[in-house]
Design goal:
The chain has 12 helices and 9 strands. It has helices at 18-35, 56-65, 84-97, 114-119, 124-129, 131-142, 170-179, 194-204, 228-246, 266-275, 284-298, 312-326, and strands spanning 4-8, 39-42, 71-78, 102-107, 163-167, 183-185, 216-224, 280-282, 302-306.
């Protein structure tokens, strides 16, 4: 049975607060654990009014502390924003507090706009170019301490914390293959290179200490509701958020609207349709067929499902329905 996992952005609803977002994320994680989801990942974004998971390691600790068995991790930490030693210490601490439950996914995007990247005191060009070396440095901090080693991660050294490479392009697929790391592709917002990236990763994969064979996970937006109309209605929150981001005016997660075309121009609609072309939206039978077709096409090893649904009860019901569909061994 293909594992299903959840990517949560700690969405802050338009009528809510960051505190509401954290409570809702923990509630979702606790339900997801009962429903049989494999992982619960959080993503690093900065200066985004609608996303509360900027201090990603802190939120991971909150979620892991409120659950018992589900794996919790970063999907991901944007490594160019950080010194690898600091990330090794943070995730070494997390793994020490919650043994065997912590994942560390890393990406090379800044997770923010250029001005915010500058405020993080990082050079975006240097950080991106340095990414492969930073991943190697991070790996080294998790290895057992060597004789004469002067700098070590405490805690962190000698811990077996799975590192994932995240990507939305062929670069990430190639790097993950060369380094022998599991690869997560962001098809939930950048679907264009999905199939080529999967083929490239599998064809070029080199076994490593961490992984002996390729393991690929794909992110996908899935919204399930009682009817197609209700699911499409809930989906408009995500569509509006994408439009707002492209307009350079990100905000809190907006409530759904009856007609998305009244909110955006035809050009904007074409943009969001392309970015969200892999989304599966509808009643349970349509979602089941959509998931079956996606898995048959991609043959991914795991699905990372995300859905920024405005109403928390509707979000819970959607993820519960998806878990029920998985239970049918699609």
């Amino acid at each position: 049975m293909i594992p299903f996992s959840i990517l949560d952005l700690c969405p802050i609803p338009e009528a809510g607060t960051a505190a509401d977002a954290f409570r809702h994320s923990l509630d979702l994680a606790q339900h997801a654990e009962v429903w049989g989801y494999n992982r619960f990942w959080l993503a690093e974004h900065h200066n985004m009014p609608g996303i509360a998971s900027a201090a990603t390691s802190v939120v991971i600790s909150y979620i892991a502390g409120g659950t018992k068995t589900i794996r919790v991790g970063a999907g991901g930490i944007m490594l160019p924003n950080h010194n690898p030693l600091v990330i090794a210490e943070q995730f070494g601490t997390l793994d020490t507090l919650f043994p065997g439950r912590i994942d560390l996914g890393v990406g090379r995007a800044p997770g923010s706009d250029p001005l915010t990247t500058k405020a993080l005191r990082r050079d975006p060009m240097t950080g991106t170019d340095q990414f492969p070396q930073d991943v190697i440095e991070l790996q080294n901090y998790f290895r057992p301490v060597q004789h004469g080693q002067r700098v070590r991660a405490v805690p962190g050294a000698g811990l077996h914390i799975p590192i994932w490479l995240l990507g939305s392009s062929l670069f990430g697929a190639q790097l993950a293959a060369q380094m022998g790391l599991p690869f997560a592709f962001a098809s939930h917002f950048a679907p264009a290179d999905l199939m080529q990236a999967i083929r490239l990763y599998r064809n070029q994969f080199r076994p490593s200490e961490q992984l002996d064979r390729p393991y690929v996970m794909a992110g996908i937006n899935v919204i399930a509701a009682d009817s197609d109309r209700q699911a499409r209605y809930l989906f408009t929150s995500i569509q509006q958020a994408f439009v707002n981001l492209r307009r350079g005016a990100p905000g809190r997660l907006p409530p759904p609207v009856d007609d998305i075309d009244s909110y955006c121009s035809p050009m904007e609609r074409a943009m969001i349709d392309q970015a969200l072309s892999r989304a599966i939206v509808g009643p349970p039978d349509m979602v089941e067929h959509g998931l079956h077709d996606f898995l048959r096409e991609t043959h991914v090893d795991e699905l990372m499902i995300t859905a920024n649904i405005y109403d928390h009860a509707s979000r819970l019901r959607s993820f519960e329905t998806i878990a029920e569909i998985r239970g049918k061994q699609i």
